[in-house]
Write a structure and sequence with these properties.
The chain is of the alpha/beta class. It has 4 domains: 1-29; 34-204, Endonuclease, Chain A (2-Layer Sandwich); 224-399, Rossmann fold (3-Layer(aba) Sandwich); 407-607, P-loop containing nucleotide triphosphate hydrolases (Rossmann fold), CATH 3.40.50. Strands 1-7-6-5-2-3-4-8 form an 8-stranded mixed β-sheet, sandwiched between helices. Helix 2 packs parallel to helix 3, helix 8 (223-229) crosses helix 11 and helix 9 crosses helix 10 (264-275). It is elongated. 39% of the residues are buried. Residues 208-223, 568-573 and 580-608 have low confidence and may be disordered.
Length: 608
């Protein structure tokens, strides 16, 4: 840096320090003022944004943090990878204080090749400091935030950001303190992790035993009491009131727009319980969904087994009080004509965005229920059919993905767009070509990324969405040769095999299921902790549906990892469209929001 630039920088810094430490009303103004960093959802402010900005322009960095979580680390993984490409390295000093850090987080740290990690045995190590070396100066962020997603984005935290020249006393204090502990700390290795894991497991097991309490004696209750114990959550209570308000206004149909994972089926069952119809018809588009919907309704409504029937394929339980039918079966002339038009006083249509199809319109126009309810996460359609008009624009309730995340109804997710595959020495920009590649280069690249970005939980339970049946089958074979346990499921496979494979995934017998579109919607596998997108789509509907496969909460995971190998090609900005509800498709506005992801709660969005 030449003399004039340095003089300008020092002048700027002096003005900043004067305003920050001497007189806040001073006319002098500078861009390096001391700043209090907090997490404030209302103002879309969080500590993570400042941390990412400092990392992006740093030449090296050091972190001294007592506590680290997988989710906290996931928010920085893309930035660490960017820095690795630029040859920039960092140091992280941490510890095993209170045995907060899980063994798996240390394994995740080992994956970050440009960061050296050491562990201190210093008693009571509880520091939270981040130092960034820039061209002209150092930045320091010191305060209460550990390297956890909650501390960086959610919790009430106080952190001070300071700027100093290299010769500044405060930088020397911090650096000297860090180096003193660093020099006595031991390097993180796989052997160290194995030893720590044994100790950690013993402590966790002992604590679990101490918390065991005597359980009450199990007693029998009848099914009515069982069902009444299940009560609506806050969202469902609000929805039920609004649905009832539509009926009270004399309307005979209503549309519920509810994000995947927010409990649409339970919501509909609660409303049926309130409406108390003489007979109900529930229409779905896939047989796989029928049994799950039926079992959910049984939990809420109680009643004898004969009250609940299925109309699909070989099953024709048409006399049931609560009938669950596939559209393919009930829309057939011979089946439809078995029923009087007024046979059902309450009709529900799941995934109603499909209702523009002739089969749906045929059924809707045939029956005359007292109330018709449509449910979908994505009412927008790529054709010209207007779902809203079908329901007379009666939107009974609406909760979109972003709002559901803010209400903590869904599992947080970290999104990574991966676009750096090279083939024969050239970067691949053609997503169509990429989708056809099942060569070793692609498979190795795929494995490298899914391992680096990882998953939450003890073992991966993943879904991969492919472009073509052949791709799914070939890629599955290739991945299996590399030691993974995968299976391809496509439309040709039977319902029984699909269900069996899902059970195997849930039970840890499979690592991944590869599919084309049969799992886009309806399938419910709450334990999925990684979703890999290998297909190009310009449809935010399909994107949200695939994203939604991992968003259900489950005790085995704290977040879900979304790895999108296609999404960022050709300026595809589906993530902010999907989450912000920006229907304008204004690319400049969307591009700006891609850089500022603070409006997305619980999400790390970055192309890498």
């Amino acid at each position: 840096m030449n003399g004039d630039h340095m003089a300008n920088f020092i002048q700027n810094l002096e003005a900043s320090l004067h305003k920050g430490f001497i007189d806040q009303n001073a006319d002098k103004n500078g861009s390096y003022r001391p700043k209090l960093l907090v997490n404030n959802a209302k103002k879309n402010e969080n500590v993570l944004t400042s941390l990412l900005e400092e990392l992006e322009s740093s030449h090296s960095f050091i972190f001294s943090v007592a506590f680290i979580t997988e989710s906290g680390l996931a928010t920085l993984k893309s930035r660490f990878l960017d820095l690795k490409r630029k040859g920039i390295r960092g140091q992280i000093l941490t510890s095993t204080f209170l045995h907060f850090n899980q063994p798996k987080v240390f394994r995740e740290l080992l994956k970050i090749e440009n960061v050296e990690v050491r562990l201190t045995n210093l008693e009571g190590f509880h520091s939270k400091g981040y130092i960034f070396n820039h061209n002209t100066h150092y930045s320091l962020i010191v305060g209460s935030s550990n390297l956890t997603a909650h501390a960086l984005k959610v919790n009430y935290e106080w952190n001070v950001k300071l700027t100093s020249l290299e010769n500044g006393e405060i930088v020397h204090h911090f650096k000297n303190q860090f180096e003193e502990v660093w020099d006595d700390a031991q390097p993180l290795t796989e052997q160290w992790i194995e030893n720590y894991e044994k100790t950690y497991t013993q402590i966790v097991d002992r604590n679990t035993m101490e918390q065991v309490i005597e359980l009450p004696t199990i007693y029998e209750v009848n099914s009515i009491e069982d069902s009444l114990k299940i009560v609506p959550n806050k969202m469902q209570q609000d929805a039920l009131e609004q649905i009832q308000a539509v009926r009270d206004a004399g309307k005979d149909k209503g549309l519920v727009i509810s994000a995947t994972g927010t409990g649409k089926t339970y919501l509909s069952a609660f409303d049926v319980r309130r409406f108390a119809p003489k007979r109900m018809l529930f229409i779905v588009h896939r047989e796989q969904i029928l049994n799950k919907a039926k079992s959910d309704f049984i939990k809420i409504l109680c009643g004898i087994d004969e009250d609940f029937g299925i109309l699909s394929g070989e099953k024709k339980q048409t006399n049931a009080k609560y009938l669950f039918a596939t559209i393919q079966t009930i829309s057939k002339e011979k089946n439809l004509n078995q029923f009087n038009p007024d046979a059902f006083d309450y009709i529900l249509i799941d995934e109603v965005h499909k209702a523009g199809a002739a089969s749906y319109l045929k059924v809707i126009n045939y029956f005359k229920p007292k109330f018709l309810m449509g449910m979908t996460a994505t009412p927008e359609r790529t054709d010209d059919f207007n779902i809203y008009e079908l329901f007379d624009y009666n939107i009974a309730y609406e909760i979109r993905l972003q709002e559901a995340l803010e209400e903590d109804m869904l599992c947080p997710f970290h999104y990574f767009g991966v676009t750096d595959l090279e083939y024969n020495g050239e970067s691949i920009e053609d997503a169509t070509l990429l989708s056809k590649l099942v060569a070793d280069e692609r498979v190795n690249h795929l494995i490298e990324k899914i391992e680096y970005y990882g998953f939450s939980g003890e073992r991966v339970k993943g879904l991969m969405f492919c472009s073509r049946k052949e791709e799914a089958k070939e890629l599955s074979l290739s991945l299996n040769k590399k030691g993974l346990r995968t299976v391809a499921l496509v439309g040709d496979h039977s319902q029984e095999e699909r269900e069996q494979r899902v059970v195997e995934l849930e039970n840890g017998l499979l690592d991944y299921i590869l599919t084309v579109d049969i799992f886009n919607e309806g399938i419910d596998i709450p334990s999925v902790n990684q979703v890999v997108m290998l297909r190009q789509t310009q449809s935010s509907i399909i994107f949200i549906q695939q994203l939604g496969r991992g968003l259900r909460k489950h005790e085995s995971k704290d977040f879900v990892t979304i790895i999108d190998f296609i999404g960022n090609y050709k300026n595809n900005y589906l993530i902010p469209i999907a989450l912000s509800g920006d229907k304008s498709q204004n690319k400049d506005n969307i591009r700006r929001r891609m850089k500022d992801t603070s409006y997305i709660k619980g999400v790390s969005t970055h192309a890498c």
